[in-house]
Amino acid sequence: MNITFRLNGDEITTDVKSNRRALDFIREDLGLAGTKEGCGEGECGACTIIVDGKAVNSCLMFAVEFDGKDVLTIEGIGKKELDEIQKAFVDKNGIQCGFCTPGMIMSIKALLDKNSEPDEEEIKTALEGNLCRCTGYYKIIEAVKYLSGK
């Protein structure tokens, strides 16, 4: 199936099989390895991307669903230098092994695009679908609070 969509600001037109998972399409076909596969069941958030402003699990959608949409992956954030979210994660030690970090950043980006000053509960709600085994979330939440001035 032929699809056209915007990926990280660039228009893409390509053929894709109708049963191709968006995650595999991003990583294997497009060569963007920042989006990670954790569970493959939509439970861990490692594969989070933003589609038309909404954080979604790319392992649970098909690439054909990108048609006509605006898709943002971690590679689209901080293309030339670190984005403010990435800087806050570094400054506040919100990164440990880094495996979950792209998904966390994408979830936070979707939140901050809608609400630049979220309270702690809103931050926790935005991160509900993202699992991290290293940081315990405290430093990640602190990074977002630091970023939003709270």
Précis, in short:
Helices cover 32% and strands 15% of the residues.
Overview of this protein structure:
The chain folds into 2 domains: 2-76, Beta-grasp domain (Ubiquitin-like (UB roll), Roll), CATH 3.10.20.30; 84-148, Orthogonal Bundle (DNA polymerase, domain 1). The chain has 5 helices and 5 strands. The chain has helices at 22-29, 84-91, 101-114, 120-126, 138-148; strands at residues 2-7, 10-15, 48-51, 54-57, 70-72. The protein has a 5-stranded mixed sheet, with helices on one face. α2 crosses α5 (138-148). The longest helix has 14 residues, at 101-114. The mean pLDDT is 94.
Text of the CATH class of the largest domain:
Alpha Beta
**Largest beta sheet, briefly?**
5 strands, mixed
Low-confidence stretches: none
- If strands are numbered along the chain, what order do they take across the biggest sheet? 2-1-5-3-4
Q: Tell me, what's the shape?
A: globular
Radius of gyration of CA atoms, rounded to a whole number? 15 Å
- Spell the H/E element sequence: EEHEEEHHHH
CATH topology of the largest domain: Ubiquitin-like (UB roll)
Distance between the termini: 47 Å
Strand percentage: 15-25%
CATH superfamily of the largest domain: Beta-grasp domain
Tell me the CATH architecture of the largest domain. Roll
Whole-number total of structural domains? 2
Q: Give the number of DSSP strands.
A: 5
